[in-house]
Amino acid sequence: AQSVTQLDSHVSVSEGTPVLLRCNYSSSYSPSLFWYVQHPNKGLQLLLKYTSAATLVKGINGFEAEFKKSETSFHLTKPSAHMSDAAEYFCVVSDRNFNKFYFGSGTKLNVKP
Amino acid sequence: GAVVSQHPSRVICKSGTSVKIECRSLDFQATTMFWYRQFPKKSLMLMATSNEGSKATYEQGVEKDKFLINHASLTLSTLTVTSAHPEDSSFYICSARDRSVPYNEQFFGPGTRLTVL
Predict the structure, then answer these.
(1) What is the pLDDT, as a whole number, of residue B1?
(2) How many of the other CB atoms lie within 10 Å of CB of A67?
């Protein structure tokens, strides 16, 4: 079975400082992993995805994530937070056929001026 | 490219009435669409998988007769909440898979907020 655990429900950073949103996964096979962002009352936007290619994945808006099999982690990072990054972030693992997406519980990122 | 729309974006209805939500893939063909429900401050839960021209596959615990799903064309899936009650109030999000995109990622619609009075 597949599942993801987002270790922090809330993360607060100051503008210009690094962002780290943590995600651990469980999968019975080599997983496909995604990070989505959801702004208030909006749909989900794909930030980046890992599908068994390079372990360091670069996404939009300066975000990146590193797949670490030994740690079963896929943490999302950004070197410098912007106010516009304030949103809810979801880590997602897919089943083998991309038929089912399993969402983490989400991490709300707050960016302070 | 790969835009998914939902209509309506918000709907308020009286208890006991039925509400239909549309999900459209605007610039690609979606043989498979998915319906999720998001409770306040909670994650998304998959309700059902909708395949064009066939019956939807519902997740465990989702009432098939309450949440009717129809996927009549390659660009349209509908979710009808029948005899809605206040506990059905939620944010409903659809997604669609573009089979021409490598690794078949899902593209999400903007969601529909349902409020049942």
Answers:
(1) 63
(2) 21
- How do beta strands B106-108 and B10-13 pair? unpaired
Taking residue A38's Cβ as centre, other Cβ atoms within 10 Å add up to: 21
Both tokens of residue A51? 């599908």
Question: Which one-letter amino acid corresponds to residue B117?
Answer: L
Lookup: tokens for B99: 């089979």
Residue of A44, A46, A57 for testing the chain B interface, max B β-carbons within 10 Å = A44
Rg (alpha carbons) of chain B, rounded to whole number: 13
Helix (H, G, I), strand (E, B) or coil at A41: coil
Which residues, numbered 2 to 21 in chain B, qualify as contacts with chain A under a Cβ-Cβ cut-off of 8 Å?
4, 6
**Per-residue model confidence as pLDDT tens digits over B24-77:** 999 888 888 999 998 877 788 999 998 888 889 999 999 999 999 998 888 999
